[in-house]
Amino acid sequence: MAATEDDDLRNDAAFKEAAVFSLPQAAYGISGRIELAKKANPSFAPHPLVQKTLDYTNRFSVNRDQGALDAFRQYLKDQTVLTQEEQCQIINLVPDSVDELKCLVQTVDDPERQLRSWCAAAGD
């Protein structure tokens, strides 16, 4: 059986290892599904709930550059001991400092998690 665009979407790097999705990842996945459906049927209109979900994820996604998001998530995975849930919270909330991060993501309380280097890199 030949690979389809649908298979490509499911095998995308953003979705392969993620147990939880950030808002930008959700927006990317929903948009991809809608785009595929519209290619198959130009008069396709998503269900109102799906459209509302897409609107929400787009509205609250701070960064929509999929390449940058993938690289940042990989950095968080490789350079910290954060859980996937914590990684998503950071991507969704975009804290300005370690102190703000600790207030927003309350499970982050261990200074050995190398968060200071993350915030320094994110500030550039």
From TrEMBL:
<dbReference type="InterPro" id="IPR010997">
    <property type="entry name" value="HRDC-like_sf"/>
</dbReference>
<dbReference type="GO" id="GO:0005634">
    <property type="term" value="C:nucleus"/>
</dbReference>
<dbReference type="InterPro" id="IPR038324">
    <property type="entry name" value="Rpb4/RPC9_sf"/>
</dbReference>
<keyword id="KW-0539">Nucleus</keyword>
<dbReference type="GO" id="GO:0006352">
    <property type="term" value="P:DNA-templated transcription initiation"/>
</dbReference>
<dbReference type="GO" id="GO:0000166">
    <property type="term" value="F:nucleotide binding"/>
</dbReference>
<protein>
    <submittedName>
        <fullName>Uncharacterized protein</fullName>
    </submittedName>
</protein>
<dbReference type="GO" id="GO:0030880">
    <property type="term" value="C:RNA polymerase complex"/>
</dbReference>
<dbReference type="InterPro" id="IPR005574">
    <property type="entry name" value="Rpb4/RPC9"/>
</dbReference>
<dbReference type="Pfam" id="PF03874">
    <property type="entry name" value="RNA_pol_Rpb4"/>
</dbReference>
